[in-house]
Specification:
- The chain is an alpha+beta fold.
- It is built from 22 helices and 13 strands.
- Strands 3-2-1-4-5 form a five-stranded mixed beta sheet.
- Strand 11 and strand 12 form a beta hairpin.
- Helix 12 packs parallel to helix 13 and helix 19 crosses helix 21.
- The chain starts with a strand and ends in a 7-residue tail after the last strand.
- It binds a DNA duplex through helix 10, helix 11, helix 12, strand 9 and helix 17.
DNA sequence: TCAAATGGCGCC
DNA sequence: AAAGGGCGCCATTTGA
C-alpha cells in the first residue's frame, strides 16, 4: 500500500509518499515529489493508495490523466467506524483519527464547503497559530490505518462495506469530473414546448402566466398559485376545507380551479428546479457535472450537491444523449428493496417470490388475487411503515404469507421506538436518538405526563420506528449497490472508452463506444451477480439487473 | 432586514 | 393506491 499526502505548508506543491504494509508499518523511506505524474512514475501499477480523502485527493491526479485503481479512504472509513460506536458528525480526517488514537487535541475537519482562498501572510500566520500541533501527514495516515484495522478486527462484512465505500469514492470523483452528457439544445426545446419562450428575469413564462389567469378566473378572485397560504385560502373561500395544498389533496377536489392549479404546479416545478437558470448554472460544455457525496446519507446512500442530480425529472431525460459513436448502457436493479428485505430477513417464502424477474407480479399471484398494484402498495407500505389507508389494510395479507420478513421490519421498528440502534446487512449503523428525543419520549411515560406530552412522545417514537424500519432495508440496499458499482468499475477498466457517468441509488449509466455496449451490458449483470454473492452469501434471493442499450436516457424505460 | 423554518415536489 | 422511509432544491412564510 502507498500512503500519499500533500506536502504540508506547500499548497499545490508536491506530495509525500511512503510504501507501507497492510498493517500500517513503514516499508520504505518517505519520498518527496512535486507533481502527480512524478507520483505515478514512482509507483508500481495496481497499488492501493492510502489517503485522507478521495474527494480532495483524487481530482489533481484525475485531471493529470491518471486513473487510480484502488484506494483506502481514511475519512469515509472513519465515518462508518465512528457510526458503529454511535458517534456521528465528528471530525473523521486522518489527522483526527491520529489525534484520537494518540490523545492529542482533535482538529476540525477541513470544511469541504469553504472556497479555497489565498490567505495573506497575516491570515496564514493566524491560522497556523490556532491549529493543533502539526503532525507529519504520512505518520497520521499510518497511525490512522493501524487504528482502523484494529477496530475492524477481521469483520468480513464490514471489510467488504469499507472496501466498497472507498472504491465508490473513486467512482464518485470520476463521475463528477467526467459528467453526464447533457444536450442543452434539446433541454431548451423541451422548456419552450412546455413553458413558452424564456421569460425576462422576474416574469412568469407565458404558459405559467396563462394558467395563473385561468386560476384567478376559476376562483373569481386573485389567487397566487406560488403561495401555498394563498392557494389554501382560495380553496377554503370556495368551500373546501383542505389542510394542505399538496397535489394529491387538490386532486380530490371538484372545482374548476383544480385542473389549472395542478398543471401550474407541475410546470412551475420544471421552471424553477430545472429551467433556463439550471441550464446556465449546470449544463456547461455539453455535460452536467454534479458533485457526488458517497455515503453522506446515514443509510449509506449517496447525496449530491448542486443541480439536484438525483432528482432529474423523467421529462428531461430526453436531454441525456450519448456522444456520436457512443451509446448509453442504462442498468437498473429491479425491485431491489423488497429483494433485499427477503435476503436480510431470511424469509424463504419471500425469497421464492423474488426468484422471478417481476417480484410484484409473483407477489400478486401469491396472495393478492393477481392484483399487482395492491401487492406493490402493501410491500412498499411494509418497508416505509404505512399505518393507515389501503397499505395498512393490506399488511395483514403480507403478515400471513411472509411472517419472517414482516417480523424483521416490525422488530426494527420496535427497536427504533425504544431508542435502540439498527444496522445494515454489512454493518452500517443508524444514528442513535438525540438527547432531546430521549427526554421527550421518556417524559411521555411518566406518571404525571400530560395528554399532550404523551401524544408528542408517541409521535416521536413512531417516527423513529418508521426510520429504523426503513433503515434496515434502505441501508442494506445501499450496501449492495455500493458493492455492485465498485465491482463494475473494476471490470470496466478492460473496456476502452467506457465511463460510468451516472449513479442513482439502484441505477447506473455507462457511456461507451457503440461497439462495446454489449460487453458493458453483460458486465453490469455479472457485477450484480457478484454483489449478490458477496452481500447475501447465504440467501436464495436474486438481485437481477436489466441493462438497456440506448442512444438517449429517455428511451431506457 | 435577514436567516431559519415551512410547504411542496422531483427522484429512489 | 396512498400520502408511510431517504434526500436536495426552490419559493414563500415566519420570527427574531
Amino acid at each position: 500500500m502507498q500512503a500519499i499526502a500533500p506536502r504540508p505548508a506547500e499548497p499545490g506543491g508536491g506530495y509525500l509518499l511512503q510504501e507501507i504494509t497492510e498493517a500500517g508499518e513503514p516499508h520504505g523511506p518517505v519520498v518527496v515529489v512535486d507533481s502527480p505524474p512524478q507520483v505515478i512514475a514512482r509507483l508500481p501499477p495496481g497499488q492501493r493508495w492510502l489517503w485522507d480523502a478521495t474527494a480532495s485527493g483524487y481530482p489533481p491526479f484525475f485531471r493529470a490523466g491518471i486513473r487510480v485503481e484502488r484506494c483506502y479512504d481514511v475519512t469515509l472509513t472513519e465515518r462508518i467506524l465512528l457510526g458503529r460506536q454511535g458517534r456521528f458528525g465528528l471530525p473523521s480526517s486522518a489527522a483526527a483519527v491520529h489525534a484520537r488514537a494518540t490523545g492529542l487535541a482533535v482538529p476540525d475537519d477541513p470544511d469541504p464547503l469553504a472556497a479555497p482562498t489565498e490567505p495573506t501572510l497575516f491570515d496564514d500566520a493566524m491560522a497556523r497559530s490556532a491549529m493543533a500541533p502539526a503532525v507529519d501527514p504520512i505518520e497520521a495516515l499510518r497511525v490512522a490505518l493501524a487504528d482502523q484495522r484494529r477496530r475492524i478486527d477481521d469483520d468480513r462484512a464490514l471489510g467488504l462495506l469499507l472496501a466498497a465505500e472507498s472504491a465508490s469514492a473513486l467512482a464518485a470523483t470520476e463521475m463528477g469530473l467526467i459528467g453526464l452528457p447533457w444536450r442543452a439544445d434539446i433541454h431548451r426545446d423541451l422548456l419552450t414546448g412546455m413553458l413558452g419562450p424564456r421569460p425576462r428575469p422576474g416574469e412568469r413564462p407565458q404558459r405559467l402566466a396563462e394558467l395563473a389567469t385561468q386560476i384567478t378566473d376559476a376562483f373569481g378572485f386573485t389567487v397566487n398559485p406560488d403561495s401555498a397560504v394563498d392557494l389554501r385560502a382560495g380553496f377554503r373561500r370556495v368551500g373546501f376545507e383542505i389542510e394542505s395544498t399538496r397535489s394529491w389533496v387538490i386532486k380530490e377536489i371538484d372545482h374548476p380551479a383544480v385542473a389549472p392549479v395542478l398543471s401550474y404546479k407541475e410546470l412551475a416545478r420544471i421552471y424553477t428546479a430545472n429551467g433556463w437558470n439550471w441550464l446556465d448554472d449546470w449544463a456547461r460544455g455539453g455535460r452536467f457535472h454534479p458533485e457526488y457525496l458517497p455515503g453522506s446519507v446515514v443509510s449509506g446512500r449517496w447525496a449530491t450537491r448542486g443541480g439536484g442530480a438525483l432528482q432529474i425529472p423523467r421529462a428531461l431525460r430526453r436531454a441525456v444523449v450519448a456522444d456520436p459513436g457512443h451509446l448509453l448502457v442504462v442498468a437498473d436493479a429491479a425491485q431491489l428493496e423488497p429483494r433485499v428485505l427477503a435476503a436480510v430477513s431470511g424469509d424463504e417464502a419471500l425469497q421464492q417470490v423474488s426468484a422471478g424477474a417481476d417480484l410484484y407480479t409473483a407477489l400478486a399471484n401469491d396472495g393478492f388475487g393477481g392484483d399487482r398494484a395492491h401487492a406493490k402498495v402493501a410491500m412498499l407500505g411494509a418497508m416505509y411503515g404505512a399505518t393507515s389507508g389501503e397499505a395498512g389494510r393490506l399488511l395483514g395479507t403480507l403478515r400471513g404469507r411472509y411472517p419472517v420478513a414482516m417480523a424483521c421490519v416490525e422488530n426494527a421498528a420496535r427497536q427504533g421506538e425504544s431508542g435502540d440502534v439498527v444496522h445494515s446487512v454489512l454493518g452500517r449503523a443508524c444514528p442513535p436518538p438525540s438527547a432531546s428525543w430521549r427526554e421527550l419520549v421518556g417524559l411521555g411515560s411518566m406518571q404525571d405526563a400530560t395528554d399532550a406530552e404523551r401524544r408528542r412522545a408517541g409521535q416521536l417514537a413512531r417516527d423513529r420506528g418508521r426510520f429504523t424500519r426503513n433503515f434496515v432495508v434502505q441501508a442494506s440496499a445501499a450496501d449492495w449497490a455500493s458493492v455492485w458499482l465498485s465491482g463494475l468499475r473494476r471490470e470496466l477498466r478492460a473496456v476502452a472508452g467506457a465511463e460510468l457517468v451516472f449513479f442513482q441509488h439502484d441505477e447506473l449509466l455507462v457511456h461507451v463506444p457503440a461497439e462495446h455496449a454489449g460487453t458493458v451490458a453483460a458486465l453490469t449483470i455479472g457485477a450484480a451477480e457478484s454483489a449478490r454473492r458477496l452481500v447475501f452469501p447465504a440467501s436464495l434471493v436474486t438481485t437481477p439487473v436489466l441493462p438497456v442499450i440506448v442512444d438517449c436516457y429517455a428511451d431506457a424505460k
